[in-house]
Amino acid sequence: MGKEPINLAVLVSGSGTTLQNLIDQIAAGHLNARIAVVIASRSGLLGTDRAAKAGLRTEIVDKKACSSPADFSQRVFSYCRAAQVDLVCLCGWLSLLEIPDVFAGRAMNIHPALLPSFGGRGMFGHHVHQAVLDHGCKVSGCTVHFVDNHYDAGPIILQKTCPVLDSDTAATLAARVFEEEKLAYPEAIRLFAGGRLRISDRRVSIV
What's residue 1's pLDDT? Predict the structure, then answer.
C-alpha cells in the first residue's frame, strides 16, 4: 500500500460487524485506510451505532423515501462523491444499487458463501448458511467481488474457505465463515489500494 490511506465509504444495512472489523483493522495498523463516510440504508441500525461510537460521519439513505431505484442509488453515491472516496465497500448492504460509471471497478462486496453458489436476491445472513447446510456442502467460505448492477454477480477478487462440520448450525457456520471474512475483506482492500487488481471480462488478476 502507499503511504497515504485509502478513503473508504462503508455501506451498511444491519449490525455492522464487517464495518467493525474494518474499524478494528485500521486501528490496529493492519489496514492503511480511512473510513470517510458510513452510509446506512435505514435508521436505527446497530451498524450506525458502531459508526457513531467510532466517531465516523454517517448518512442515512432510506430506500422507502426514494422515488425510484435510480434515485436511491444517486443519493448513495452522491455521499460517496462528496466524501471523495477511493473505494466503496458494501458491508452487509442488502439493497441493489445502480453503479455509476465513475465507480465501476471501485465498489466491492463481501458475500458469506463461495459464489456463484448461494448468492442472489434473498441470500444474506443466516439464509445463506442454512442453505449451505441444507445442500449438504462440505466446504463454505466467503467471496469478495466487485459490484455490478446485479446481486452477487460481479467479478470475483478472492475467496477464502472453511470446512462445514456435521454438527454445524447456521449460527456456528456463520461464525466460522466470519473469521475468514475478517481476513478476506482487508486483504482485498489492500490489493486495490496497491493498484494490484486488473479486471478483464469476468476475471480479476492480481499483479
Answer: 44
Check 30, 111, 127, 150 and give the catalytic one.
111
User: Helix 46-53 crosses helix 17-27 at what angle (to 10 degrees)?
Assistant: 20
Q: Give the span between the Cα atoms of 102 and 87, in whole angstroms.
A: 11
What pTM was estimated for this model as a whole?
0.96
Q: Can 129 be counted among the known catalytic residues?
A: no
**Which 3-state string (H, E, C) describes the chain?**
CCCCCEEEEEEECCCCHHHHHHHHHHHCCCCCEEEEEEEECCCCCHHHHHHHHCCCCEEECCHHHCCCHHHHHHHHHHHHHHCCCCEEEECCCCCCCCCCHHHCCCEEEEECCCCCCCCCCCCCCHHHHHHHHHHCCCEEEEEEEECCCCCCCCCEEEEEEEECCCCCCHHHHHHHHHHHHHHHHHHHHHHHHCCCEEEECCEEEEC
Banded model confidence at residue 3, pLDDT cuts 50, 70, 90? confident
- Locate 47 and state its grid cell: 451498524
| Position 192 confidence tier, pLDDT thresholds 50, 70, 90 | very high
